[in-house]
């Protein structure tokens, strides 16, 4: 690994997008999570492309598009309109197809599939519209992103993916504790 100015810039961008992603795991509002993810994935796409991690960059681009679509759907719902279930499912299918197509064009050996698996996990989590599931599956996806960062030799990515895993775990534990506290206060709630 040669440390060049492009490598250093990619690592600075990596710090910025990880800061935003870490913050997203501490949020409870789905729209805020999606907005933070969208912004973070812009940086992730850029940094991974700078490191020649083209499959990861393509997956980050798909995640950016996915987050934007889900954000638009949240705005529609906030106006009291329903989202057609068939339309919602078709968007999910198109997202998966896009992942497969981009993987075919950017495939660089079996290890490049780590970013694909991470993308599919987080897509599944977000489509369930369950913030708690998003956080726990974020831990699993983080393991795959951590492994991918090792493959593309992003030192800062490795360190920060570990921190992100800690943040997502803390966010999940906080939610569990809050639910438990609410049940103790009002045992009649689900």
| Helical coverage, percent range | over 70%
The helix/strand series, from N terminus to C terminus, equals HHHHHHH
Total of helices: 7
Structural class: mainly alpha
User: What's the β-strand tally?
Assistant: 0
Range of strand content: under 5%
How would you explain this protein's 3D organization?
The chain is globular. By secondary structure, the protein is an all-alpha fold. It has seven helices and no strands. The protein has one domain (5-185). It has helices at 5-24, 30-50, 54-78, 85-106, 113-127, 131-151, 155-185. Helix 4 runs antiparallel to helix 5 (113-127) and helix 6 (131-151) runs antiparallel to helix 7. The model has no long low-confidence stretch (mean pLDDT 84).
In short:
This protein is mostly helical and 190 residues long. The chain contains seven helices and no strands. α1 (5-24) runs parallel beside α7 (155-185), α2 packs antiparallel against α3 (54-78) and α3 (54-78) runs antiparallel to α4 (85-106).
